[in-house]
Amino acid sequence: MTEIGIEAHILKFPRERLYQHHRKVSFIGGEGIVRSSNFEGGTWRYLIEMPQGREPTFGRAGAKTMILLNETELRAA
After folding, report:
1. Which domain holds residue 8?
2. Which of 15, 48, 53, 76 has its CA 20 to 30 A from that of 32?
């Protein structure tokens, strides 16, 4: 296989993801729960829902706080 062929193989055939849906994970700046994932550009990307905590006195702009992170940025909590 040529080098380009190997790269194409890696991008086309993902390895198994490390974090399943509903798994609690931590990252620099917080922690959350994996809500979805997809394989893109040779790596797994995860949509993480962060806990809300108490509502501030000035209210909230949205119902949930979500962040999109690469697999290398996560650790099992």
Report:
1. 3-76
2. 15
Q: What is the CATH number of the domain that holds 16?
A: 2.30.30
pTM for the whole structure = 0.73
In 3-state terms, what secondary structure has residue 13? coil
The per-residue pLDDT for range 24-61, each reduced to its tens digit, is 999 998 899 999 999 988 889 999 998 877 777 776 66
In sequence order, what are the beta bridge partners of 66? Answer: 49
Q: Output the furthest CA–CA distance in the chain (Å, rounded).
A: 61
Domain count, the chain: 1
pLDDT of 25: 97
Q: What pLDDT shows up at residue 15?
A: 78
